[in-house]
Amino acid sequence: MRQQQFFKTGACCLFIAGLLAGSLLAAITPEQKKELKEIEAEVAKVAPLITKKKYEDASAAIQKVEERFETFVKDADLKETDPILKKVTVQLEKAKEKLAKASGKGTVSFEKNVAPIIASKCTGCHSDDPKGGLALDTFEGLEKGGRSGNLVIPGDPESSLLVRRLIDPDDQQRMPKGKDALTEKEIKAIAAWISEGAKFEGDKTAAMSALSKAAAAGKPVAPPKKLEIQKETGKETVHFMKDLMPELVDTCGRCHNDRVKRKGFSVMSFEKLMKGGDSGSVITAGNLDDSRFWRLLNGPDDGSPVMPAGNQTGITRKWYDNVKTWILEGAKFDGGDPKKDFPSIEEREATARASYSPEKWLEIRKKSSDGEWKKTFPNAEAKQRESSELLLYGDVPEERLEQIEKWAMEHVAFLRQTFKIKDDPVWKGKLGVFVFKERFGYEEFNNSVHKRDVPREVFGHSQVNSTFTDAFIALQDIGDSPTESSPGMQVNLIDQVTGAFLKRGGGGLPDWLIRGAGLALAHQKSAGNPFLAAMPRTAGGILQESRLTEPGLIFVDGTFSPGEVGPIGFTLVEFLMKRGGIPQFGLFVQKLQSGAKPEVAIKDVYQTDGKTLAIQYAGSLPSGGGPKKGKKP
User: Which residues, at least 6 apart from 91, have a Cβ–Cβ distance to it below 8 Å?
Assistant: First the structure.
C-alpha cells in the first residue's frame, strides 16, 4: 500500500494501513447509541465557543469530548475506523482544525502529546552514540536531524521524514527498528503536531523524558538559568581558546559532541561547555571542588588524569595544569561569540596553512615527497630535479627525467594560460612527480604509499587533496612508442598532470571526468595516437559487458573499475565536448565542483536527463571489441 494512503486531507488525520477500509458496521446497544448521540451534541457545542473567541473553553471542551469518546470506543469494543464512529471523528477533526486556525495555536502539545512518545519509543537508539547520527533525547536533536536530513517539515506531515519512517511498509526501514510499530493514535498525534506547524516554545535542550514527566505533572520544565560568561581582563595566565580549546575538542569532543553528546554534554562551543549536561553545570568559576569537570580529570588516589574514559594518556600534563589554573582564575573566555561552535582540527589546520609562505609549503612538499619515496625504496636514493612548478623524483636516467620535466612544464604552461591561473606555483609547494623505469617500481609505490594493488592497464595516477597536504603524480615510464595497449609516456604524463590540475580545486569531480579530460587534452597533441584511437571501440565493449541496469549510472563515480575509467572517460568527455562545445563542458565541470550531483548538472547544462544523455553517448560508440574489462583493484 502506497504511503500516500496514510494521510487524510483536510484534518491531516493519519491511519494505519489496513484500517482505512474500516470494519463492518458494528452492532451497538440502545444505550450506546444514546451515548454516541450525546457525544455528537457535545462536539457541536465547540463551534459557537470558537466563534465567540472563547478559545480556552473550546480547547477544554474538545479535550473532554475526546476523553469521553475514547472511553465509549473502548467500552463498545469498536475500532476507531468503524463506520459508525465516522461522524464524530470527522466532527472532532474539523473542530480542532477550526480552533487551530482561529486561535493561531495548535491543539496538539509537543510536551504533552509528542515528547512522551519519543522518550519511550525513540531514545533507546537515538540518544548516546545515536544511530544515523540522529539524537532524539532533546528537541534540539529532533530539530537538527541526522545524516538523512531534516526530520520535520512544519505543516507537511506527508513529506516529513519522521512520519514516513514511522509508517514505512518495509520492516527494515520502519522505525522503531526491530520493535512494534507505533499505534495509530501515536502516529496521528505526531502527524497532527507537524500539521499544526511543529511548534515548541520550551527549552530545546531539555531531555525528552523531563518534558514528558513535567507535562504529566502539569508543570512546565523550568527554563535554563541564564549563563553569565565572564570575559578575560588581561591579567589571566591561561587563555581558553589558545591553551585549552584545541585539546578539549580533539580529546573530550570524541564522546561529548553535538552528535554523540554522552550524558547530555557537548564541548563543541563555550556556551555548551559552561551549560553542562544531564547532571547540570560542570564548571564553577574559581572553585575546583564544585567543578565536576575538574573532578573527572582526577584519579581516586594519586591525582592523575582519568578522563577521557579508557584513555588516560588522552590529555597532557600541561593541559591538565592549565585547566586547573583556568578554573581558579575565573573560567573566563577570550573568544568572540560563545554560542559559535569551536573549529575542528581540520579547520584549525586550514587556518594555519592559510598563513604558510611559499617557502614553508615547499619545505612541506619536499619532506612528504622524500617520505613517499623512502616508503617505496628505503635503501635507494632518487634522482631529483626541481623547477618552478615541479619536484621530480625517479630511478630513470638523468636525461629521461629532464625530458619528462620539459613535457610537464609545457603542459603546465598550457593549463595556466587556458584556465587563466594566476597562482604561483599552480600547486602549493609545487607538484611532486614520481617516475619509475620498471613496472615493479610503480606497483611498489602503490603498495607502499596507497596500500593497494594496481591493474596492469593503469600506468599512472594523480593524488591531490583540497588542502594540498598531498599533491603528486606517479608514473610508469612506458616509453615513447605508443600502441593500442600503451599510450606512450607523453600522453601518460599529460593525462596525470591534467588530473592533478583538476583535483587542486577540490569538489566532487568523478574519476571518469578527470581521466577523460586528461586524455582528451593529450589527444590534441597526439591526434594519431593508436592507444587513443582504439578507445571508442574499447569503451563500446566495456558498456556491452557491463549490462548496466540504469543508463544514468554511466555518470556515477565508481560504476567502472580503474582499468575501465580511461576508455569510458575519454569517449564520454569527447562526446560532451562535441555535443555542447568546450564552454558548456566547462560549465558542467563547475557545477560538479560546486557540489551538484551529475543528474542535476546534466539537466542544468545540457537540458536533458542523464538517461537520455547516456543512451545518446552509448549510441555514438562502435559496438563490441577491444580489451576485456579491467578489474577493480
Answer: 40, 43, 44
